[in-house]
Amino acid sequence: DTGVSQNPRHKITKRGQNVTFRCDPISEHNRLYWYRQTLGQGPEFLTYFQNEAQLEKSRLLSDRFSAERPKGSFSTLEIQRTEQGDSAMYLCASSPRGGGQGYGYTFGSGTRLTVV
Amino acid sequence: GESVGLHLPTLSVQEGDNSIINCAYSNSASDYFIWYKQESGKGPQFIIDIRSNMDKRQGQRVTVLLNKTVKHLSLQIAATQPGDSAVYFCAESGNAGNMLTFGGGTRLMVKP
Fold first, then answer.
1. B contacts of A10 (beta carbons < 8 Å)
2. Are A62 and B28 in contact (CB under 8 A)?
3. B7, B41, B89 ranked by CB distance to A42: nearest
4. Each residue of B91-105: pLDDT tens digit?
5. What sign for the dihedral angle of Cα B88, B84, A96, B65?
6. Which residues contact A39 (CB under 8 A, 6 or more apart)?
7. Residue B4: what pLDDT?
């Protein structure tokens, strides 16, 4: 396991279509996070899971967004009825359960979504 | 690769010089701070972190300073190298690292 893996790396979709992204975290990490990053900005928190439980969701996560982590391992992020404003880099990160310095919060390389 | 941060503040330094990147945070309840490096087309890469009960922490060629009085964080890179060229973000958390709030980022350009 060499890190957090995200697929696909790039996705171009037409407005109104649904898209799904996948994240495979570091295997021993039980926390998984989704962030969104637009050009010129830092990443913005969307949601996080501890094992299979989704514990926190940002107000940025509208009703068109849904995230799952059914077996506490990989996670999917689905966007329904995509809009041009959804165009961004979607980043996944994972960490072991917190405590101490160096939480090992590791990001993947992201999925770049372009809605045309 | 795709550029990260087209309109970010830019710090330009000569190779071999020391770099200092600054960050102001707003939440006085934040107790954990991280510096990340992000290269084009890649996710943020962890550099160094610090808890609020410390004011300085050193890593390999990097030092993070935390001033809680003025809510200021800085990253010092010694002997800056071309490979250090990237966008640097500070991030803070007030709940043991569950959710990170990122600052706006600074682009570091290292001139050979």
1. none
2. no
3. B89
4. 998 765 578 899 889
5. negative
6. B3, B4, B5, B6
7. 43
| 3-class SS string, B12-66 | EEECCCCEEEEEECCCCCCCEEEEEEECCCCCCEEEEEEECCCCEEECCCEEEEE
Cβ contact A93–B89 (<8 Å): no
Q: Which two tokens stand for residue B112?
A: 């050979």
* Chain B residue nearest residue A30, CA to CA: B98
pLDDT in tens, A27-61: 888 899 999 999 889 999 999 999 999 998 998 88
Residues of B in contact with A45 (CB under 8 A): 99-101
Q: How far is CA B39 from the centre of its chain?
A: 13
Residue whose structure tokens are 């899971």: A49
The residue to which tokens 């990170």 are assigned = B100
Task: Determine whether B39 is exposed, middle or buried from the number of CB atoms within 10 Å of its CB (0-12, 13-18, 19+).
Answer: middle
Instruction: Name the residue among A56, A105, A110 with its Cβ closest to that of B46.
Output: A105
From A82's Cα to the closest Cα of chain B, the distance in A is: 22
In this predicted structure, what is the pLDDT of residue A99? 46
Kindly tell me the burial class for residue A25, based on how many C-beta atoms sit within 10 Å of its own C-beta (0-12, 13-18, 19 or more).
buried
Beta bridge partners of B93: B32
